[in-house]
Specification:
The chain has 488 residues and is an alpha+beta fold. Helices cover 45% and strands 13% of the residues. Bound molecules: adenosine monophosphate and magnesium ion.
Length: 488
């Protein structure tokens, strides 16, 4: 690792100072031939970074971790995690580094983090590397999520390293530079709890409060207020996933943030035919992380967070358990409220409509969508046309027309607002077949399809001529058995 002479970026080491026990000073492996594949210019500018500088040799050094500012102290972060239900006390950044924190133009602290930058002491059997395809998948899908208004880590750049990565075949390697409001995870708390060090747990919780929930610091019970805030943020997050049909794929506790941002886009995908049992990850054999299980699994993950925080939640064990249980039971309330308010907006329902009227209408609609295995995205946009008087597009999507017509009549009687619907129902998502096509082209050296897909999904609500292919579900031969692989 060398230090930059030209780069003027100031990187803090707040995490490493606050919880050195969770920060292993480390460095990136050299990138033999770095080539910038994509750079998120608006994000870079928002972070106060110079786009021209990032495109130059010093910038590529920063984006691969091989040339860091003099004061930077890159670290691999330690965390634990429940993976598919089983607890691993020591996971950590096996192929990632936290370069440090910076302040964006709005004064917010942001982690600058790399993925695919080489083996670390947490690498276990892994090679520490990442391939171009999966890093571009994270770039495209996280940009789409951001454009949809769903909290997420952001992708700053993908740089090809010039190094081959051995998977089923040898693939071109890459490093993803990622920005997040932090990389604190449920698994970070599980790591410190497993050490039995209450003082360290308290320091980590204080950091989480400072970074994400400063109002908790002045609450009567700050750590319970922190937990309440995480429960609410995660409930809102998973409700937003459900509204757009997003399946995360690997909802292990190490992939659940304290901030409430979506993190770690591995075998994730957007559901096409509506079915709660939808699973895309090839390693999720039991369907633990199926679309319909995501709220329940998130609540389960939050129960693991409560266990880790327990020594901070009350004076005695029984009182702490009681307090945590009450907090966690609010998950359902937060989730239902976020989901109902989201779906009311998607249906263009008037703001003053009673939930008692809206809720059964929504329930019946979900039953219709499920029976018809409809494509959510197409369906909601077609409903917008129905709100304008043309029900034929939506009638073309379901088999049971009598049920649909009866439902449409009830809904239209409420005066749905079609323009408002179009502002919240996306036309363009990174559909699985489009992502696969674009990643295959990029792996072969053609970035055109990735760039065009990004352009479509960055303005998801604004229907534009010429982009019809980005709005259509997968062709039949793409197959219902679509899977993404964890060979990420
Ligand atoms: P993920 O499935 O990406 O959330 O990763 C789960 C754990 O495996 C984390 O501790 C990662 O750092 C680690 N990991 C995943 N891929 C690799 C790799 N190629 N080399 C080293 N560690 C890895
Ligand atoms: Mg992860």
């Amino acid at each position: 690792m060398s230090t930059a002479r030209v780069l003027t970026i100031a990187l803090d080491d707040q995490f490493a100072r606050a919880v050195p026990e969770l920060a292993v000073p480390w460095h990136a492996e050299p990138a033999p031939e770095p080539t910038l594949l994509v750079l998120n210019e608006p994000l870079a500018t928002g972070l106060g970074l110079e786009v021209d500088q990032l495109r130059g040799p010093d910038g590529l050094g920063l984006l691969t971790g091989t040339l860091v500012p003099p004061d930077a102290r890159p670290v691999a972060q330690a965390y634990a995690g429940h993976q598919f239900g089983g607890f691993s006390p020591r996971l950590g950044d096996g192929r990632a580094l936290l370069l440090g924190e910076l302040r964006d133009r709005d004064g917010r602290v942001r982690d600058l983090h790399l993925k695919g930058s080489g083996r670390t002491p947490f690498a276990r059997g892994g090679d520490g590397l990442a391939a171009v395809g999966p890093m571009l998948r994270e770039y495209v899908v996280s940009e789409a999520m951001h454009a949809l208004g769903i909290p997420t880590t952001r992708a700053l750049a993908v740089v090809a390293t010039g190094r081959g990565v051995r998977r089923e075949t040898v693939l071109p390697g890459a490093v993803l530079a990622r920005v997040a409001s932090s990389h604190l995870r449920v698994g970070s708390f599980q790591f410190v709890a497993a050490q039995g060090d209450v003082e360290l747990t308290r320091r980590l919780a204080d950091l989480a409060i400072e970074r994400h929930y400063p109002e908790a610091a002045t609450a009567d019970a700050p750590y319970l207020a922190l937990y309440d805030a995480v429960v609410a943020a995660q409930a809102r997050l998973v409700a937003q996933w459900m509204l757009v049909g997003f399946v995360h794929g690997v909802l292990n506790t190490d992939n659940v943030t304290i901030s409430g941002e979506t993190i770690d886009y591995g075998p994730c995908a957007f559901m096409e035919a509506f079915d709660p049992a939808t699973v895309y990850s090839s390693i999720d054999e039991s369907g633990r992380y199926a679309y319909g299980n995501q709220p329940g699994i998130t609540q389960w993950n939050l129960a693991r967070l409560a266990e880790a925080l327990l020594p901070l939640l009350g004076d005695d064990q029984d009182g702490a358990v009681e307090a945590a249980t009450a907090s966690l039971s609010a998950f359902g309330h937060h989730y239902n409220a976020a989901w109902l308010s989201g779906i009311r907006a998607k249906l263009g329902l008037p703001a003053d409509l009673d939930d008692e009227v809206a809720a059964p209408l929504v329930e019946d609609l979900v039953a219709l969508m499920r029976a018809g295995r409809v494509d959510l995205t197409t369906f909601y946009r077609a409903l917008g046309r129905a709100a304008r008087g043309d029900a034929e597009p939506v009638r073309g999507l379901v088999l049971d027309l009598a049920d649909l017509d009866a439902w449409l009549e009830r809904w239209r009687a409420l005066g749905p607002d079609a323009d408002a619907m179009d502002r919240v129902n996306p036309v363009y998502l990174p559909r699985n077949h489009l992502v696969e096509e674009a990643l295959a082209a990029a792996t072969g050296g053609d970035l055109g399809p990735v760039e065009r897909l990004l352009e479509a999904v960055r303005s998801p609500y604004d229907e534009r001529p010429g982009l019809e292919a980005y709005a259509a579900p997968a062709p039949d031969d793409f197959g219902a058995g679509y899977q993404t692989f964890c060979g990420t």
